């Protein structure tokens, strides 16, 4: 004969009225909680992320060009790409110097006095053969590379000002909107040890003279913060180089 015995299993978590009464009387244990699986969440897909400003911010010009081929019909991407390209081109226009430009007396008005509005111009009056002039010029060359949106020029002192005393060399004159904003006479103006950072700190004491052309904040404090950071990095590197040199002996 076949086995006709079977076990009836109700829906999980369900209970009879009799069982409920027995549980209230303490004759049956409490029902175990109903098992609930954790909600399913598919793994994130980079390609499925929405294309918004956060997604494409930081893309280079080449990456934006590549994205245009794949997503040419995305209006937001196209508009944003055009905006970014304009910003990059404007930044390239601003950062156009990068060195200390030699000028003559006949160039002074055009290159300094008639410089475009909102253009900082740092002029060094110097003469060849003076170690102090050579040292300060080296510092300015370094700063000109770091801050290519600031214009640095050099001119032989007597071509700029006839009979200018050699004892005042080197001299730096800072111009902005055709006006003299600061004058620094002699190498001692830049501290006991003249470095690129000490020169930058003096130049930016009251005005944000140095501009890297990256479109960032150009307040005096922002520029000084960047200069201090460069100073710390240089000191750390010098110490690391000294340690490497001593360990190799």
Explain this structure to me?
By secondary structure, this protein is of the alpha/beta class. It has helices at residues 17-25, 53-56, 61-70, 75-94, 108-113, 131-146, 157-160, 196-203, 220-248; strands spanning 100-102, 120-126, 151-156, 171-176, 179-185. Strands 1-3-2-4-5 form a 5-stranded mixed sheet. Helix 3 runs antiparallel to helix 4 (75-94). The protein is elongated, with a radius of gyration of 36 Å. The mean pLDDT is 79.
Name some characteristics of this structure.
5-stranded mixed beta sheet; 249 residues; 5 strands; alpha/beta
Distance between the termini: 98 Å
DSSP strand content: 5-15%
Percent helix: 40-55%
What is the helix tally? 9
> How does the major sheet shape up?
5 strands, mixed
Supply Rg: 36 Å
Kindly state the number of beta strands: 5
Class computed from helices, strands and strand pairing: alpha/beta
Shape: elongated
The strand line-up of the biggest sheet is: 1-3-2-4-5
Order of helices and strands: HHHHEHEHEHEEHH
Unreliable sequence segments: none
Please state the average pLDDT score: 79
Protein name: Phosducin domain-containing protein
Biased composition (Pro residues): 30-40
Domain Phosducin: 60-179
Pfam family, one: Phosducin
